[in-house]
Design a protein that fits this description.
The longest helix has 9 residues. The protein has a domain of 77 residues: OB fold (Dihydrolipoamide Acetyltransferase, E2P) (Beta Barrel), CATH 2.40.50.140. With 112 residues, it is mainly beta. The protein contains one helix and five strands. Helix content is 8%, strand content 31%. A hairpin with a 4-residue loop joins strand 2 and strand 3.
Length: 112
């Protein structure tokens, strides 16, 4: 094999690790100018609809957008970013789903 070199994919990236050795967590925050906010998935209703409890205290019917429909699995209890509809306040679009480490980071830094 000509030009074969061992790739070191197993080594951790020193830039992606904090000083204490924990991995760096990148978190997307809601964009206030786009009317996005945090929400919690409460109940799966089927047909890409979820009942969500938003941070402003309103329970809305969330719709999974087409870009997330087949790629992201949302379960009850997940933390989400939603964008309420401007013409119907009881409904919203689900923009993003947080993973467990991201949710823990948000709680630790008092975003939620």
């Amino acid at each position: 094999m000509r030009g074969f070199q061992k790739n070191n994919h197993d080594a951790t990236n020193p830039v992606a690790v904090n000083a204490d050795g924990t991995p760096t967590v990148r978190v997307r925050l809601p964009k206030k100018w786009n009317n996005e906010q945090f929400a919690l998935a409460e109940l799966m209703l089927g047909a890409n609809h979820i009942r969500v409890r938003c941070i402003d205290g309103v329970i809305r019917m969330g719709r999974i957008k087409g870009t997330m429909k087949k790629r992201t699995w949302i379960r009850e209890g997940d933390t989400l970013i939603v964008a309420p509809w401007s013409f119907q306040d009881a409904k919203c679009d689900i923009i993003y789903r947080y993973l467990k480490p991201q949710t823990e980071w948000l709680r630790k830094n008092r975003y939620i």
